[in-house]
Amino acid sequence: MKPITNEKGAALITALMLTMISLAIVMLLLYYVTTGIQVSASQKRYKTVLEAAYGGVSLSVNEFIPQLNSAIFGNYSSGVHDLLTKYASSSNLNMTLGNLDCLQQKLDNATADWGNSCSKTLDPRDNPDMTFILKSTLSSTFTQPPGFKVFTKIVGTPVKGNTDKADRPNLRKGENVVESAEIEGGGVTIPTTYRVEVRAERETNPQEKANISVLYAY
Q1: What are the tens digits of pLDDT across the range 76-113?
Q2: Which ranges of the chain does DSSP label H, i.e. alpha helix?
Q3: What does DSSP say about strands 96-97 and 130-134: parallel, antiparallel, or unpaired?
Q4: Which residues contact 197 (CB under 8 A, 6 or more apart)?
Q5: In 135-172, at which residue ranges do the beta strands (DSSP E only) sit?
Q6: Rg of the Cα trace of the chain?
Q7: Cα separation of 165 and 107, whole Å?
Q8: Of residues 168 and 162, more confidently modeled
Q9: Residue 213 phi, psi (nearest 5)
Q10: Which residues contact 112 (CB under 8 A, 6 or more apart)?
């Protein structure tokens, strides 16, 4: 058996091994950098759509539900018409309402007294009560980015209270409340409580979405 004494090519093999190790390190670094960028972008997109969901909650509980509640104690059809006139024609909202009879029942009755046709599922996209689109307010001279579609749905009315829904800022003496004969409005005030599910998603990519559950006392 003759030992190999020729060492020609050892330097080349060593150089190739070092090159492969260097490439592996570079690829690993690129992987970590790319993953970090993807995670950061994902978090940024989620934060943006989450802010849109919060905006949808604010509009729903501060504008839409109070206005509809007020309409119930006046002319409901007229109140709905006024709401749609104000917001459905808005190019930045394009608001639509779901089943108006069910929406009225949800606003003014405990969950057990809703009609059988009224959806109680927790998915806001399943028969939503209100749908609208939040769009950018950038000047028309700029390219408008895609907006966010918001679905709002009342999924439960755990407590039917006695607050005055006809006069939005005020609470009244209440129905089904025992009051002092000397002091008007001396009874116990119980707000109506709603469980509201809100979902926001980007118009062009529904995979970018955020859901918020709200317990709202009015």
Answers
A1: 888 888 888 888 766 668 888 999 999 999 988 899 99
A2: 10-59, 65-72, 76-87, 100-108
A3: antiparallel
A4: 122, 123, 124, 152, 153, 155, 211, 212, 213, 214
A5: 148-159
A6: 30
A7: 10
A8: 162
A9: -105, 130
A10: none
